[in-house]
Design a protein that fits this description.
heterotrimer, A alpha/beta, B alpha/beta, C alpha+beta, A: alpha/beta, Ubiquitin-like (UB roll), Alpha-Beta Plaits, Rossmann fold, 5 domains, 7-stranded mixed beta sheet, 6-stranded mixed barrel, 29% helix, B: alpha/beta, de novo design (two linked rop proteins), 5-stranded mixed beta sheet, 4-stranded mixed beta sheet, 43% helix, 14% strand
Chain lengths: 868, 421, 160
């Protein structure tokens, strides 16, 4: 027990804390400028000087740890003078332009000056001038206002791990540079914005249009961009979000946000938002009343079910919609219309990956906590860049490195390139080869005795490639050896699985290899999830083979439970998956489709095929917030509420249930669950729902895993898996691995002049939704083709050139960007912007084992675009 | 026979080569140390010699070594601080340029005592010639088996690299030096932890001044007793004084600790240039407070100078006669401190710039009595509140000068011109 | 100013790899790498920063921060010969500022500036450790002491 006295008050603690922390415990406030949450102390601003008995010099309270018997004074005359002096030093060169500073009202320098500052100025020397810069797309920096506390630099380096800014020059000429503007490594996360105590870094969005005291309401909600589910606060005036700030006290993100979460909220106010229901009349979509749209939809669905049977109807759910929305869609499709044809874009990667791993190890195997990653001593990543797909999860991986842990990345290291020792980047298509070698080596070194005979048997059946083959796909023996040696040493490893493990073939084998590796290492699994509620969408039964709560439809007991508890009879048969629905529409077996918050025309490969399939439907209803490529083909379109306009729950990639809260009022859109409930009602559903909570209550009655979870309790740890219900553990039984015993083939290389195309997930964009965000478009407004510089050179193309990419399925236009991280002969294109993206110009087959997307037709030619 | 210990044989141009150095008996102390003594013996010997670090702070070297040697972490790094950037200081330069093997021998013995296998000489960028000399000397020592992986066939390994600074006075501060050596901006680190426990790359690290290392071979070969008989009690040994300014024979002098300023100026340096009268002396480099002529009998060592309101610092004696304007000296000094402030802490970053600006106006005759008050107040606001000693020194020396030479500052204000000329 | 070529960048890369051998961390090679970059390109060019970043893995922003901290690095193009003249106290009282004036009059050189023909750049130095032989300068990598206007003239003549 340490006992100290601060200003005559005794403080007792059993931890070695700083004087600053000790003072806070007894309510003594010591002013600080350079101290900030989650940052290590710097001791540089000198604002927190205190007197310690028996020491001649004043000491910084933020750095000095308490020792037993210490006597501290924080309010002597000398200390008051020192504080005044520090403020005077900071203000002599400060522009004192508070009236035009967006920080006014929440500026620490302003507040402290009011409290301790001098009454009059005596600086006659002429202020130092420093540049104000507007060249960054999302922030404005005014180095004249900077007090060099370096909170931004420490945040960027130590927390974000981007290393995009540094103090440059020295002494009184120091300033912080260069932030973004496309140079160096800025990730536009804006976490420096939260860290800045003054107006040196301000947001470009809503510049000069508000003051902190204009904020009328604020709402704590969950980010709607990716599967991490960061907690954030919407600050609003009238019906507009003025800004989004993180909450340092709540949520799994500890005050960190990414560019999408912090700045990408403004799509909700885009002028192209749908404002009225639309019905196609004489070939044109025309505005109609809600009643007409609902009645029309109910009538058409009823008619078509009567004519063709329930099996002719299909629904596409969405990982962007809430659990309640998805629940209501599956209720419409399964229980009102009598069809098991319900699926979502989770089919493309997440659903097959998670269910395959759950088949291996039981339900919830991927339900691990993101903050826990930081406590790991090593992270193994394969199949995608966590720093762009799930940025805040990505920074947890970087923090492992920061603490001395190891990071391994199979494939392009991307945002983790500073955190790895060796690249394990391989030729396109050789992932399974590399993973097999690593797994075999680790298995051998660990002397692992498996308790799972099924996995064990498969492990011994693996054919291990020799080093020669690996060298031929571009991986160095040194890197492989290092990886195997270090992996074996890990005590608390994490394995992260991204979409590329499945998207480009060898899906089941890659998943088996990674699942087995995690098993042998005794690690924790994470599967990257690009939408905020993909997991919830599955949990709500929006997948053909699975009912609410993730129960297999073929296990009849669950069907009975639905009937017993809710009087709902589950239709027979497994139902069609997403691809089968498209094929069904094409062949005429599917006649009607309800698409909620999804854009299959843009997000499923082979745009032409998907488009023509949907055109053949007798009835297509879409609910969305924009008139997407898919919505524009519909017979009826419902304007939905956007993320900031609705209540409900999301289930993130940790399977944590979190509550989304309504901030702004909907611009005449309605929540999807409400639209669907109205249609169900019109079709004769007996239940009625007053609000989103009443939908949740029904879910928690029916779903075994969610049983007993109260809507109100979904705060903090309340939503952490398992929720108190019964997860389905230990499904004993075999599973299939395609090509298990085959030696992985050396990938064939493209002919000269042709390149293999991959999908690029940009950090800035969140699939096709963020093209409506002016802020994010301001950062990245055009599609980029990332390509190895040597390959670009061999094609006679150079950086920043506009190029046309042509495949057998179509063409797309992008700006060429040389990227050393890309393997030779490979290029990557995003799937975000209007006109053709990556998926529009590739084809696909269905993986026979996983029933997932296997993208094909990736060989492309790249040529310089003709001058306009 | 050259009586000097540190500057011994530096008049011999061949001394910089290993052959010349060995002809004068060089590397005997190393052979003796490695052949006859244990690391523990050497640390004990250094402790009982009473050697204090020659960089400025005067910390007992033996004690520092013991701290590092007790730390169980390995590797241990040995760093020579050859970044003498303190204005007025050029005492290490003759060692670096004319007696490089003495430094290297001292470092190798230290490495042996501390069980360090890796050493760096952080040499200021302003000494390009010394860099060439040192690099050649290291190659020679390597070729002769005094450096490398099996020194004197005793399975003792030590390698040494010269690392150039690039013009940053703050890197003379040992933790800033370590940051700089690690390839960062040279900012002082928070202490604790101290370098002896967590220095270069978090490992136990000994940082000693060039002159300190140059004392080691003598102590090892002649014994602590012989060493302690030189100089004064509590401050034994020889000391290098670099004398500049208005004296007839400026230069580097090796004299016993505790010698008086008067003796240095009048006996060794031939008195004041041009026969003028002495106005003041800075005894230990620009960041030590100036001493008035009436106090020049003070003994030059770590113990006595503080009693005269100053410090031994680096032993850089700067002599000013009545042709020198004190205001101008301190304006220039403050310009230096402003230029060299790393910018990390507020009082130093802002205070040095502000003080320089006011001093500039006083010097130009564009200031009022109020400005002098402000200057005094700003200096007091810096003193004792900075992160490292740089800002403290800047304000402290100005306050001392303003106290001793107040009328000169006032003259500038009243008469809008300098008293000198 | 030497042009940036792949060949020159390759030489730089090779040198950095050699320097990295001398330290347990790659970042420690930064300071010596900057000197090498100056030798090859005349100053620490953006391309050199990119290359140093690629090889050492130190982020480019931090490299700029480090380079700009040290007064002796050339972070912009400079003249063929660099006059680094000390004006600190000991040199000042022996007339260093007269030499600064003289360089301005005779060569049109101002502190931080370069002669129009690109022959000389003048950098004002803080103490260069030649206080006993003041005033003094470092011209490129050689020290010259006890300077007078005449001596300065003669010396500069020999640097074309």
């Amino acid at each position: 027990m340490i006992k100290i006295t601060i200003d005559g008050i005794e403080v007792q603690t059993d931890r070695e804390i700083t004087i600053l922390e000790a003072a806070k415990q007894v309510g003594i406030e010591i002013p600080t400028l350079c101290t900030f949450k989650n940052l290590s102390p710097s001791g540089s601003c000198r604002m927190c000087l205190v007197e310690i008995e028996r020491l001649s010099r004043p000491q910084t309270a933020c750095t000095v740890k308490i020792t037993d018997g210490m006597v501290v004074r924080t309010n002597s005359e000398a200390i008051m003078r020192a504080r005044k002096a520090v403020l005077e030093f900071l203000l002599i060169n400060h522009p004192l332009d508070c009236p035009v500073c967006d920080k006014a009202g929440e500026c620490i320098l302003q507040d402290l000056s009011a409290k301790y500052g001098a009454a009059a100025g005596r600086f006659k020397e002429g202020k130092r001038t420093n540049p104000v810069s507007f060249e960054d797309p999302v922030i404005v920096r005014d180095m004249q206002r900077c007090i060099l506390c370096t909170r931004c630099v420490r945040t960027c380096d130590d927390l974000q791990g981007a290393f995009a800014i540094s103090v440059i020059n020295r002494g009184s000429h120091s300033l912080i540079e260069p932030f973004s503007g496309g140079r160096f490594d800025c990730e536009y996360c804006g976490n420096c914005l939260s860290a800045c105590p003054v107006g040196a870094i301000t947001s470009k969005l809503h510049r000069h249009t508000y003051r902190p005291w204009y904020i009328e309401r604020q709402v704590e909600t969950i980010c709607g961009h990716c599967g991490v589910g960061c907690t954030l606060t919407l600050q609003m005036r009238e019906n507009t979000i003025i800004r989004v700030i993180p909450d340092f006290e709540k949520g799994l993100n500890s005050g960190m946000l990414c560019v999408m979460g912090r700045f990408g909220y403004d799509y909700t106010e885009h002028e192209e938002r749908l404002r009225s229901p639309l019905i196609r009349k004489d070939g044109e979509l025309v505005p109609v009343s809600w009643e007409e749209a609902v009645e029309f939809t109910a009538w058409r669905l009823k008619e078509l079910v009567k004519k063709y049977g329930g099996g002719a109807v299909a629904g596409i759910a969405s990982g962007r919609c809430t659990n309640e929305d998805n629940y209501m869609l599956q209720k419409l499709i399964r229980y009102v219309l009598g069809s098991n044809n319900i699926d979502s874009a989770a089919r493309l990667f997440y659903r097959p990956a998670v269910s395959y791993l759950e088949r291996m190890f039981g339900q919830g195997i991927t339900a691990n906590l993101i903050p826990g990653i930081a406590n790991s001593d090593g992270v193994f990543v394969a199949g995608g860049d966590p720093t762009t797909i799930n940025p805040v999860l990505g920074i947890a991986v970087r923090s492992v490195w920061k603490k001395g842990g190891k990071v391994f990345v199979v494939g392009k290291s991307g945002g983790l390139r500073s955190n790895i020792k060796h690249e394990l980047n391989h030729a396109e298509g050789a992932g399974a080869l590399v993973l097999t070698w690593i797994l075999a080596k680790v298995y051998e070194k660990k002397n692992f005795i498996s308790e799972n005979s099924i996995i064990d048997k498969k492990l011994s059946a693996l054919k291990v490639p020799d080093m020669d083959m690996l060298v031929r796909v571009g991986v160095s023996p040194e890197a492989l050896q290092y990886t195997a040696d270090e992996l074996v040493r890990l005590k608390n490893p994490v394995v992260i699985i991204g979409p590329e493990t499945v998207l480009y073939g060898n899906g089941s084998k890659n998943l088996f290899l990674l699942g087995a590796l995690n098993y042998v290492l005794n690690g924790r699994l994470f599967v990257l999830m690009d939408e905020p509620n993909t997991q919830g969408c599955l949990d709500m039964g929006c997948s053909p083979g699975v009912l609410v709560g993730g129960r297999p439809v073929e296990l009849e007991t669950f069907g009975h439970k639905m009937e017993n508890t809710a009087g709902m009879k589950t239709p027979e048969g497994t139902g069609l998956n997403l691809f089968e629905m498209i094929n069904g529409a094409n062949s005429g077996s599917i006649k009607a489709m309800f698409v909620m918050g999804e854009n299959p025309v843009f997000n499923i490969p082979d745009k032409k095929k998907v488009e023509s399939a949907l055109q053949k439907l007798e009835f297509l209803a879409v609910s969305d917030i924009f008139l997407t490529e898919t919505a524009s083909l519909a017979d009826v379109v419902f304007p939905a509420s956007a993320w900031s306009e609705k209540d409900g729950t999301y289930t993130n990639l940790e399977r944590r249930l979190q509550r989304l809260r309504k901030g702004t009022m909907s611009s005449r859109g309605r929540a999807d669950w409400k639209i669907l409930a109205d249609i169900c009602k019109a079709l004769g559903m007996k239940e009625s729902y007053t609000d989103v909570k009443s939908v949740w209550d029904e879910i928690s009655r029916i779903s075994s895993v969610h049983s007993g979870v109260r809507y109100e309790s979904l705060i903090g740890r309340g939503g952490i898996w398992p929720y108190g219900g019964e997860p389905l553990r230990g499904i004993e039984g075999d599973f299939e691995v395609e090509g298990l015993e085959d030696m992985p083939e050396l990938p064939g290389f493209a002919q000269s002049g042709r390149v293999i195309l991959k999908e690029d997930k940009s950090l800035i964009h969140s699939s096709s939704l963020s093209r409506y965000s002016p802020a994010l478009m301001g950062v990245a407004s055009e599609p980029l083709l990332m390509i190895n510089p040597v390959t670009a050179q061999s094609l006679g193309l150079s950086d920043n050139e506009r190029v046309v990419i042509t495949s057998d399925k179509g063409t797309a236009v992008a700006i060429l960007r040389a990227d050393r991280g890309m393997p030779e002969g490979v290029a990557a294109l995003s799937n975000t912007f209007k006109d053709n993206g990556f998926r529009s110009i590739v084809g696909y087959t269905i993986d026979p084992t996983l029933k997932s997307l296997n993208i094909t037709d990736r060989v492309v030619t790249i040529e310089r675009a003709k001058q306009l | 026979m050259d009586e000097r210990i540190i500057l011994r044989n530096t008049d011999d141009p061949l001394n910089a080569s290993i052959a010349g150095y060995m002809a004068h008996g060089g590397y005997k102390a190393l052979e003796q140390a490695v052949g006859e003594l244990t690391p523990r013996d050497i640390i004990d010997e250094i402790k009982s010699s009473g050697l204090r670090g020659r960089g400025g702070a005067g910390f007992p070297t033996g004690m520092k070594w013991q701290f590092a040697s007790l730390d169980p972490k390995f590797p241990k790094y040995l760093v020579c601080n050859a970044d003498e950037g303190e204005p007025g200081t050029f005492k290490d330069r003759p060692i670096l340029e004319h007696n490089p093997h003495l430094l290297i021998e001292g470092m190798i013995i230290s490495a042996y005592a501390l069980q360090s296998t890796r050493g760096y000489i952080y040499l200021r960028g302003e000494y390009p010639h010394a860099k060439r000399v040192l690099e050649r000397a290291i190659e020679e020592a390597l070729a002769s088996g005094y450096l490398g992986n099996d020194i004197l066939s005793k399975h003792f390994r030590f390698n040494l690299t010269v690392h150039s600074g690039a013009g940053a006075y703050i890197c003379g501060e040992e933790t800033a030096l370590l940051d700089s050596l690690e390839g960062r901006r040279g900012l002082p680190r928070l202490k604790p932890p101290f370098p002896v426990n967590s220095g270069l790359w978090g490992k136990p690290t000994i940082v000693n001044n060039v002159e300190t290392f140059a004392n080691i071979p003598y102590i090892v070969s002649q014994g602590a007793k012989a060493y302690a008989s030189i100089g004064v009690k509590d401050c034994p040994g020889p000391k290098l004084f670099s004398v500049s300014g208005r004296v007839n024979k400026p230069g580097v002098y090796e004299l016993p600790m505790g010698i008086s300023l008067r003796e240095i100026i009048y006996t060794h340096c031939g008195g004041i240039k041009g026969g003028g009268s002495l106005k003041g002396v800075i005894p230990g480099g620009i960041s030590t407070p100036i001493i008035a002529p009436e106090n020049i009998d003070c003994p030059m060592d770590f113990v006595h100078l503080p009693k005269y309101g100053s410090m031994l610092g680096s032993g850089a004696v700067m002599v000013f006669d009545d042709t020198v304007c004190i205001v101008r000296v301190y304006e220039r000094a403050m310009k230096f401190f402003e230029h060299e402030s790393c910018g990390k802490c507020t009082p130093c970053r802002e205070g040095t710039a502000w003080m320089r600006a006011i001093l500039g106006r006083i010097e130009r005759g564009d200031a009022s009595e109020r400005d002098l008050e402000t200057l005094q107040d700003v200096a007091e606001n810096v003193t004792g509140k900075t992160f490292c000693p740089l800002g403290d020194g800047a304000a402290g020396v100005l306050l001392a000068a303003m106290k001793t030479y107040r009328e000169e500052f006032e003259y500038h204000i009243k008469n809008k011109r300098c008293k000198v000329q | 100013m030497p042009q940036v070529t792949t060949e020159r960048l390759k030489i730089l890369r090779g040198k950095i790899y050699e320097l990295m051998e001398l330290y347990p961390s790659y970042q420690a090679a930064l300071l010596p790498s900057f000197f090498v970059a100056e030798e090859i390109f005349g100053f620490i060019s953006p391309e050199a920063i990119g290359e140093i970043s690629n090889v050492t893995g130190v982020p480019a922003a931090e490299i700029r921060g480090v380079a700009s901290f040290y007064a002796m690095y050339k972070t912009k193009p400079m003249g063929r010969h660099i006059i680094q003249l000390c004006t600190n106290v000991s040199c000042m009282i022996e007339g260093a500022y007269d030499l600064v004036e003289y360089l301005k009059e005779k060569y049109g050189l101002t502190p931080g500036g370069t002669t129009p023909d690109g022959r000389f750049s003048l950098v004002i130095m803080e103490c260069i450790g030649a206080c006993g032989t003041a005033p003094a300068m470092i011209l490129d990598t050689d020290s010259y002491e006890n300077l007078t206007k005449d001596r300065l003239d003669t010396l500069l003549e020999s640097y074309k």
